[in-house]
Amino acid sequence: MSKIARNDNEDAVDRRSRILDGARAAFMRYGFERSSMADIAAGAGVSRTALYHYFPGKEDVLQAVVDELHARHLNAATEALERSETLASALAALIDAKFGRTLDLVTASPHGVELVDAGHRLTGPTIRDADGSFHALIVKALEHHGRTEDANAVADTLIAAARGLMRSGDSYVSKEKFDDRVHRIIAWTCK
User: Fold this and answer.
1) What is the DSSP letter of 96?
2) Which one of 86, 126, 147, 155 is separated from 119 by 20 to 30 angstroms, measured CA to CA?
3) Which residues pair with 171 in a beta bridge?
């Protein structure tokens, strides 16, 4: 690859990254529905024409943001699994990498619930794929620590529980309350 082509490719990756940063900031500030392509372009420091070159619409931008978010969560979960020494530490790190980080994002914005809802509505297949990969990591942790019996069912139950532990009624709980709840369910699971 020539130096010019490599620089053009790096510029494109950098511009796309700036666009996603601008989109995240706009979505967190205004919510998905009220954010406009102009808000995203302004936050990224690019023209709307440049933005449309990368993404045909706001839904496509959200898809890319969600894809990147899930990739980060799965990378963090994989690294946490590799570093863990006990089943309890593996499960705690895995759940925090996926659900704890999501809770941090949701509670960081007054539009967090709307963003989660928009993400689920518009990026369902991406979320299902990421959930499947995350499920496989929990199964791997269970099996690695000798808990092979019903590993799939236990992983499924832990994931469902973690989702439920994030909320209390219609609102999300604090990260501290979530961590306390997770600690209790992991202690029960690891008996």
Assistant:
1) I
2) 155
3) 168
